[in-house]
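Entry 14. Ran structure prediction on the chain below.
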Amino acid sequence: MENNVALEVAEKIVRELKQKIVGKELLKKEVEDEIKDSFKDIIRKILISPPDLIEEIKEENLLKKKPYVLLFCGINGTGKTTTIAKIAEHLKRKKISCILAAGDTFRAASIEQLKEHGEKIGVKVIAHEYGSDPASVGFDAIKFAEKNNINCVLIDTAGRMHTQKNLLREMEKIVKVCKPNRKIFVGESITGNDAVEQVRSFDEAIGIDGIVLTKADIDEKGGTALSVGYVTKKPILYLGTGQEYEKIEPFDKEKFLEKLGL
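Output, structure tokens:
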């Protein structure tokens, strides 16, 4: 719990660890390794292995002849817009063509921010006026992608607190109109239990399909990843590890275990 692991997850780990090792006959020199191996096994089962997003996109393009749609949500200040640009740049490096949709039509300068990212990474941005319907921005971006054979549409949305029911309902409308292949929650690694409550609310509202955690480079503890993975039973897709566009990496379960010292 000192490492930002949510109480329900900590209790599950302790319970399962007891079942695995209490009453087991071990030599004194084997105890530490047995505990570590058991821990590793429990955590490995808690974390869902992420899918191969590149293969998913290619499959959608080839089999269904449709662009793959990623919808991003989360609260303000987690680095969501920058994360979208990083993922677009990552996909571009994998030869996946992208388009960005400026679905955050509320926050001042959000459209300009996304356009600036688009210019820097060489990706087109579809945008409407401030105050316009974000669902229609996403819809127009998807139509543009269909017409121009673009592989993937990444839709930004306004950051909203997980307690704002009316704004969460607006997310439902965006999902209904845009029918994304994956709805991705963007949260901060360093927020601990707050991230758990946030991800739970978004999951209840729209049913998220994946998680990106930013600021993983300054998170020494790893508890947030473990907690959000357990609470949602959804995979962590990427970790943000710095400010630059290349500072994003697909989540690797084994690498995560190594970081925890297991």
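The longest strand covers residues 182-188. Will compare against last week's run tomorrow.
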